[in-house]
C-alpha cells in the first residue's frame, strides 16, 4: 500500500510545480542510506511517524551532515505538537509547518524562491534573521475544496483520509492540540475520490486511515 503522508506531500509539491526527490527513512533505520541527490534547495522532513526526540535528533543529524546549509522544513504530528522544543534544541531546523500543509507548503516554497514573504505563509513557525522565533497566524482548509493525493501506478489497496481532527476532546489524546478543528469530506466527495482511484490506479480496496 502507498504511504499516505509521503504521497500527500509529493502531491502538494508537484501540484505547486516544484520538482522533488523522495527519500525513504527506512533506509536510514536499516543503515543502508546513501546520498541520492545532494543538489537540493530545500529539505522537507515529515514527522508523522516519528514519536520521540531521539529518533528526530538522529534524523536531523543525518540530514544536516549530508546537506550542509540547506534549509530544513518539518511538518507532521510530532513537530506540530513539539515545535517549541524542537526549535530550541535543533538550530538546523529553519521552518516548521503546523496544520494543513496544502496551504502552507506551496506558499513557503514560493517565499523561499523570492515570490513572496515568510510573514505571509500561514501555519508557519520560523526563525527570523535576528534569531527570534515567529509564529504566523493559523489557517485551515475545507477538505472538499482540495484534491486528494494522487498515486502513481497500480495499487489494489489505497489509503484514504476522509477527515482531520476529531469530534471528541479526550485529554489523553493529541488531536485537540494538533488539529483542534474537526473537518471531514462529504459523502459525495469520498465516493468521487474512491471511483477515481478505482479507475486510475486499479484500486479494489480502500483503507480509511481515520
If you had to describe this structure to a student in words, what would you say it looks like?
This protein is an alpha/beta fold and 210 residues long. The chain is built from 8 helices and 9 strands. It has a 5-stranded mixed beta sheet with strand order 1-2-3-4-5, sandwiched between helices. It has a two-stranded parallel ribbon with strand order 6-9. The longest helix is centred in the last third of the chain and has 15 residues, at 187-201. The chain is globular and about 50 Å long. The model has no long low-confidence stretch (mean pLDDT 90).
Strand order in the largest sheet: 1-2-3-4-5
* Unreliable residue runs: none
Number of helices: 8
Beta-strand segment tally: 9
* Rounded radius of gyration (Å): 17 Å
- The chain-level structural class is alpha/beta
Strand content: 15-25%
Compressed to H and E, one letter per element, the order equals HHEHEHHEHEEEEHEHE
Mean pLDDT: 90
Query: Percent helix among the residues?
Result: 25-40%
Assign an overall shape: globular
Gap between N and C termini: 16 Å
Largest sheet, described in full? Answer: 5 strands, mixed
